Amino acid sequence: MNTDCIYSLSDFLGQVLTQKCWTAWRAEKRRNEKTGQVKITKVPYQTVTSQSRSNDCTTWISIEDAEAVAATEGFINHDLGGGVGLWLGIEYGAEYRVGGIDLDTCLSPCLTTWAREIIDRFKTYGEISPSRPA
Predict the structure, then answer these.
(1) How confident is the model at residue 52, as a pLDDT?
(2) Torsions phi, psi of 45, nearest 5?
(3) Confidence label for 93 from pLDDT (cuts 50, 70 and 90)
(4) Which domain holds residue 131?
(5) Across 88-111, average pLDDT
(6) Please, are residues 128 and 119 in contact by the beta-carbon 8 Å criterion?
(7) What average pLDDT does the segment 108-130 reach?
(8) Is residue 32 a part of any domain in this protein?
C-alpha cells in the first residue's frame, strides 16, 4: 500500500477541528410503516431540535456546537446512545479526505475473517452500529 498520501492524525485533526464538518447525533427508534418493525438508527442534529443532513453542508456545525448539542440534558437517549460525529466521505481541504467502509453482516456472532482482513488492510478500527447491537 502506498503511504505517501497518509497524514498523521494530529495533522488531520488540526485541519478538521476548525471546520464546520461536525454533527451531534443520537440513536432513535424508527418504526417501518409497512412492516411495523422497529429499528434503531443514528440521527444527526445541528441543534437540539433540528436535524442535519449529509447532503447539505449548511446544516453542518463546528465541533464546539456539536459537543454543546450532545451535552444538552435530555438530548441523548441514554439507553440508546449518542454523541458527536464527523461527516464521512467528503473532502476536508485539498489534502485530507475521510471515508468509511460499512461491513454489513460481518458479525456471526464473532467478527468474520473477511471483515478482519479489511480492518487490518486499512489499519483502522470498527464500531458496532446502534442499529445492530449484537
Answers:
(1) 96
(2) -135, 145
(3) low
(4) 101-134
(5) 70
(6) no
(7) 78
(8) yes
